[in-house]
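Worked example

This section walks through a single chain of length 170. The input is the sequence exactly as stored; nothing has been trimmed or padded.
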Amino acid sequence: MTEHTDGNGIVVGVDGSEASMAALRWAAGQAEILHTGLVAVHAWEPATSGHAPYAPVPARPTAAQERERAVQILTTTVHEALGPRTDGAVRRVVVEGPAARVLLQQARGALLLALGRKAHGTFGLPSVGPVGRECLRHSTVPVVTVPVAEGSREPREAVDSPSLSRSGAS
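Given that input, the structure is written out below as tokens.
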């Protein structure tokens, strides 16, 4: 099997939710099967909601504090989803900006973009949130939405897909 060393390998969106942990576990399995890198991405935006514009500055977190919180969310989620065996196996990226825009930028040139989703939405339809919908609409690479395994935190079986390549798997 060809090893993919250029590009971002498999990019996965991480927000700390159970759905993003399911996507991270699935993507880790795929990265291992495809012998490619895994990039866990967490996007954050400055917190403006909940604080009045006239609130005293000490009441609002600083940009450095918000960035540190984002790093902590990503670190904790990767550790919780994959365990301690991730030393160096997962490249972690924290970027300030809207989640969909950040994920689409990070996924350029990747094999695929993996996102978590709830198992079921209304009327039994798949539940894809606004970030997922935006990524599905505008991504230049295949997007996989991984549902949360109901009643289980066990990783889902990875699918060996030799036909998945940069040249048009979708």
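What to look for: Confidence is low (pLDDT under 50) at residues 1-5, 152-170.
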